[in-house]
Amino acid sequence: MSATLAKRQERSWKDSALSLVKRQETGLFGVIVVLALAVSLANENFLRKDNLYNVLQTVVVVGIIAVGQTFVLIAKEIDLSVGSVLALSAVTAGSVYGSGANPWVAAAVGIGVGALCGFAVGSVVVLGRVSSFIVTLGMLSIARGLTQLITGGLPQTMPSELSFIGQGRVFGGIPVSVIIFLVLVLLGQLLLTRTVFGLRVTAIGDNDAAARTGGIPVAWTRVLTFVLIGTLAGVAGIVFSTQVGVAEAQAGLGYELDVIAAAVIGGASLSGGRGSIIGAFLGACLLGLLRNAFILLALSPFLQQLSIGLVIVLAAIFDQWRQGNLHHLHPRRLRQQLIRRKA
């Protein structure tokens, strides 16, 4: 009996270890550690506290939106408008402040505009039954056009009272924006894994017909995921504009690709039903680490883009392996296929 129990415990331990290894977050963390050690050997400045804080500060904006994008991807949707919504939220806050409003009211209005954009997108997707790819592509242009109309191409001054959000440091030098990012990651992970809303989002992405049969309000939940990412894009807009001191119409250009990359690298599946907020955080950190490494090592920016593309492809392949979809590439199966063809 004792021998049997020992074997069961050993098997359970092995299964747990294999499950941990297969988790996207584990692989990502390992990649980050190995890459960080390699870069630190090539440049001793990499592991300096100030440089590590700078790496985190550069990924804050993309990372905040990636939290929302993960929810959207899990629900089997996508949002391409986040960069433009970021800019629209920021310039709205700057414009409201310029009209004499309280700085915090201006920031709240800017974030509210982001949430309203998300609600508009979600409503069209659900009520119009239009692909979120098309709707958010349209919102990308609409929000950017509104940004240009509001600013006339001129930068909007952000309230000095809010500058500590993007430029302040506490607890011995930790950027305030990094703390905001970490808090949002924690709240996002709790929302996804410990609330009814998070369970509904996962169920919808996994099988929306079954979710509807089970009494889940599929339409309203989908709308809420877009409201969430729009709100976080608004928050990111305030953080970004307070980092640079002004709100510009061209802010956030191309950010949608980095946001999707961070979420996908972090384990969010484009086919829906799977994703991790912690993974999105690590994905954003990996992108920031790569960019910082290329700067420190004075490597070509073109090589930087190539490496990021490779990381995205490798993350997608790892996701397929993790789901057990690469059995057909096992050497034994390949050999059997070759024998059948010859026969």
Automatic annotation (TrEMBL):
What GO molecular function annotation could you give as one example from this UniProt entry? transmembrane transporter activity
Asked whether the keyword Nucleotide-binding is assigned, the reply is no
Gene Ontology cellular component?
plasma membrane
Pfam families from the entry? Answer: BPD_transp_2
Which InterPro entries does the record match to this protein? ABC_transp_permease
Source domain of life is Bacteria
Query: What's in the keyword line of the UniProt record?
Result: Cell membrane, Membrane, Transmembrane, Transmembrane helix
Report the locations given in the UniProt record. Answer: Cell membrane
The chain's coiled-coil residues are none
Write out the transmembrane intervals. Answer: 52-73, 80-98, 104-126, 133-150, 170-192, 219-240, 260-287, 294-318
User: Its membrane topology, per UniProt?
Assistant: Multi-pass membrane protein
Entry protein name: Ribose transport system permease protein
Protein source organism: Micromonospora echinospora (Micromonospora purpurea)
**Phylogenetic placement of the source organism:** Bacteria, Bacillati, Actinomycetota, Actinomycetes, Micromonosporales
